[in-house]
């Protein structure tokens, strides 16, 4: 995979210069911030319009390898998303791949104390498993807990499940994250980023192998040995499930067949020089030329996200002033872990009719999240990872190519509520030959003194 130059993105540098010219980052946000979270553009349908190509490029900047089935696929997009929209919540639940194996899965869980569940992204592991366990009677004896690697995932999944169970969030279904506990005396299903006392724990997204997940693996192995009444279900989107199974003593692996909606892949023919610039151009191209559907762009961190949002807003303004016919409306929304929770939650709000949302995210949006309406994912192929630097004696964040599993997760965000398209700003050969199937787990590359998981789980 292309190594990014030490200088990084020219676009990010250009935006930084503008920030310095505005004296401070705060001033920059006062100026730029008003453009985010507001609809840019004027009344205009999503028909192709005559656009100044110096602003968006003809097909973005990237020369994509076209999928021959693309036109056919786009027809399907429309047909199936309308189909999905017309379904009730119960019908949507029954449409998920996990539903077809519900009884079989519950049977295996009844017969085993620990099982590994493997299924494609979007198959229903996070939202359905906990409800099936409740329906099978486990909540009569205590809480069904589901661990999540990220706060935003715990919150949004709990919200979705509370809607599916027709209960207020915080009543039967709740979540607990650091400094915030939205549960009550009636809570029977709890999504959380910390451990707690439960009768069943679903360890979700185990393939991420975060430091906390790996430590929790060790703790739960002891709990399993001590408490016969306790059940552990480990879910993973990838096939490295055998490792997890071996760790717990060759426990069964249950496969959920199929995926919800197809995703169409478009790969760059050559590696991108500046993926930030390429992503901005691609997002503008999708906005101007593609049928309705929201866009999700993956960047490595806050700096790149700010630059991307700023550049998108600037290009929208240029377009608006240079195009007489009007420009379709765009709502630009950043999301990264340091963004306050109320601003993070904005990505889930529906944009007004006729407006397209463009979410610019770190890998915070890579797993568990379903943002209804995302049909286009733009994957830059990079992420920031924490690595221990022995010379400095501390952890540092560095930019690395993502793993193949992460690329699949990113693409999966486009096929959740209808068939989608994933623009990969890297080559197909990089995906097949250079991206690692499973990257080095965090436990092997960071300082272990930072483990923050609540250990109370081990004492019960
Ligand atoms: N907030 C939501 N709005 C609309 N549909 C949703 C929402 N949350 C979940 N869904 C539907 O439920 C499906 C299953 O989501 P779920 O999170 O359970 O899948 P998963 O197998 O855990 O995937 P992943 O491993 O990617 O988290 C989604 O693909 C989507 O169709």
UniProtKB/TrEMBL annotation:
Domain Helicase C-terminal: 279-459
Presence of keyword Nucleotide-binding: yes
Catalytic activity, as annotated: ATP + H2O = ADP + phosphate + H(+)
GO biological process, one term: mRNA processing
SMART domains: DEXDc, HELICc
Source species, domain of life: Eukaryota
PROSITE patterns to which the protein is assigned, alphabetical: HELICASE_ATP_BIND_1 (PS51192), HELICASE_CTER (PS51194)
InterPro entries to which the protein is assigned, alphabetical: AAA_22, Helicase_ATP-bd, Helicase_C-like, P-loop_NTPase
GO molecular function: ATP binding; ATP hydrolysis activity; RNA binding; RNA helicase activity
Keywords linked to the UniProt accession: ATP-binding, Helicase, Hydrolase, mRNA processing, mRNA splicing, Nucleotide-binding, Spliceosome
Species per Swiss-Prot/TrEMBL record: Liquidambar formosana (Formosan gum)
Pfam families named among the record's database cross-references: AAA_22, Helicase_C
Protein name from the UniProt record: RNA helicase
Documented EC number(s): 3.6.4.13
Ranges where the Helicase ATP-binding domain occurs: 106-257
